[in-house]
């Protein structure tokens, strides 16, 4: 009979047990469930709600159950629904009526809210550490290739020359905000819901602050109905994961382009690529493609959570059991990304000569000419128009921008001097971008130094 079977006269149908179980996916909460129960009984004893000896017996047996679970010596049975029931019933099996005191002043509704919060807190701390590794790998590539110049794109069209290091550091910034989002979300995760009971609190004289301290939470929840009903903290976390996945997906798209024969800017290590069953020459950037695919999956998890919660009347509804499917899937997916990317980035080979060859397209320096005119006090819009006409002039004659004489240039840019013909040098173009945040050598070197210090 189920632990709640007192008012029932027939057992749950097998299909219903299968339909309603969550042990198949919530068993991973076992450690946090046990940690929560240990703190709970310690408080119950301190408040005189259960005897001290019972508390000690329960705590020892909870440790024992944890060891059994970790040793694979613990039987799961869907008739006991979830991890909370499994552990309580294992306690009762060994301790009898003493074990039956563990659930005093507690509901699975506040218990599961507690377990998820404890679990997510650990996951967030782990994820932030992994994000730092990822950032370090990107910074190491920037640091190892401080002079590599490549075309920067907008609309996937040649725009202006940039440093490869600058491109890597753009992703370092994105990952930094991802880490910030996680840290910020942690503040709302780290609030202690136990003591909210099923929804209305309890008549028993519990001490929630004690449990809060015991489990390292910042504070206790202020409203028992809110505490058992909402999962916004988990939605926030999955949102942060979705944004992180999106960033990684964009990096992947850059790498896919860069690996193509047309770009040929980088080569990923063989260990991160796969071949074709048919075409013998193929080496495909499947990991990057899978990341685009897996990102869609994390978005799906976020959408599932938002949708799951939007129509629920207060307070707890069983729909919420499904939250863990989405939360765990998003976490597992992102943790895999975080395992694969740092070594893939570290071992990536940069083909600086190919990047430099692409960056020698003089059209990439057209803006530099317009800005030179602004230095000579030509209004920018006029300068833009002149250089545009110059581009057209060259195009009509089938010439590159650097294949014209000064006289020819003067036909569209009357202010041009000999100096203008020197502006097509990519190194110079980069070097001159020296405002904070720009791609200039000096600025990027400063940024690399900053990140090396921050990530040390
Ligand atoms: N397995 C449930 C969940 O994950 C635990 C809470 C069940 N509470 C209830 N009243 N049925 O949400």
Structure, explained:
Residues 6-300 form the Fumarate lyase N-terminal domain. It is found in: Cytoplasm. Pfam families: ASL_C2 (PF14698), Lyase_1 (PF00206). With 456 residues, the protein is mainly alpha-helical. It has 3 domains: 8-104, Orthogonal Bundle (Fumarase C, Chain B, domain 1); 116-193 and 227-357, Up-down Bundle (Fumarase C, Chain A, domain 2), CATH 1.20.200; 361-455, Fumarase/aspartase (C-terminal domain) (Ribonucleotide Reductase Protein R1, domain 1, Orthogonal Bundle). The protein is 61% helix and 5% strand. The chain is built from 18 helices and 6 strands. It has helices spanning 14-20, 23-26, 30-46, 52-70, 83-95, 108-144, 164-189, 208-214, 224-229, 232-259, 286-310, 323-346, 352-359, 366-375, 380-396, 406-412, 426-431, 441-455, and strands spanning 149-154, 157-163, 191-192, 219-220, 266-267, 349-350. The strands form 3 sheets. It has a two-stranded antiparallel ribbon with strand order 1-2. The longest helix is centred in the N-terminal third of the chain and has 37 residues, at 108-144. The two termini are 56 Å apart.
């Amino acid at each position: 009979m189920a632990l709640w079977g007192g008012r029932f006269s027939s057992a749950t149908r097998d299909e219903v047990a299968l339909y309603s179980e969550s042990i198949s996916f919530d068993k991973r909460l076992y450690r946090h469930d046990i940690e929560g129960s240990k703190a709970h009984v310690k408080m119950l004893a301190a408040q005189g709600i259960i005897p001290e000896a019972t508390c000690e017996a329960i705590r020892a047996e909870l440790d024992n159950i944890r060891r059994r679970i970790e040793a694979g010596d613990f039987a799961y049975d869907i008739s006991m629904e979830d991890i909370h029931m499994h552990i309580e019933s294992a306690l009762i099996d060994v301790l009898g009526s003493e074990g039956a005191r563990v659930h005093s002043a507690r509901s699975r509704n506040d218990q599961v809210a507690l377990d998820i919060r404890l679990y997510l807190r650990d996951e967030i701390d782990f994820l932030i550490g992994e994000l730092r590794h990822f950032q370090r790998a990107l910074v190491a590539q920037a640091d190892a290739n401080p002079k590599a110049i490549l075309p920067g794109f907008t609309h996937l069209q040649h725009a202006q020359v940039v440093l490869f290091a600058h491109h890597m550091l753009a992703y370092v910034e994105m990952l930094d905000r991802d880490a910030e989002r996680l840290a910020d979300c942690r503040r709302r995760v780290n609030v202690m819901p136990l003591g909210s009971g099923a929804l209305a609190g309890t008549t028993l004289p519990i001490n929630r602050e004690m449990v809060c301290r015991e489990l390292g939470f910042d504070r206790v929840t202020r409203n028992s109905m809110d505490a058992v009903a909402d999962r916004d903290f988990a939605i926030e976390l999955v949102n942060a994961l979705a944004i992180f996945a999106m960033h990684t997906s964009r990096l992947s798209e850059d790498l896919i382009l860069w690996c193509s024969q047309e770009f040929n800017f980088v080569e990923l290590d063989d260990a991160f690529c796969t071949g074709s069953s048919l075409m013998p020459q193929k080496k495909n950037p499947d990991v990057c493609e899978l990341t685009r695919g897996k990102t869609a999956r994390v978005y799906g998890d976020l959408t599932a959570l938002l949708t799951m919660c939007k129509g629920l009347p207060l307070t707890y509804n069983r729909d919420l059991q499904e939250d863990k499917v989405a939360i765990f899937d998003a976490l597992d997916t992102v943790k895999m990304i975080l395992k694969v990317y740092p070594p893939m980035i570290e071992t990536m080979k940069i083909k600086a000569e190919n990047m430099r060859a692409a960056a020698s397209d003089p059209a990439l320096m057209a803006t530099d000419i317009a800005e030179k005119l602004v230095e000579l006090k030509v209004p920018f819009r006029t300068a833009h128009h002149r250089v545009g006409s110059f581009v057209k002039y060259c195009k009509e004659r089938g010439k590159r921008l650097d294949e014209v004489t000064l006289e020819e240039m003067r036909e569209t840019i009357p202010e041009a001097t000999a100096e203008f013909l020197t502006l097509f040098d990519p190194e110079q173009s980069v070097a001159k971008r020296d405002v904070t945040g720009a791609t200039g050598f000096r600025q990027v070197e400063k940024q690399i130094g900053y990140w090396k210090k921050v990530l040390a």
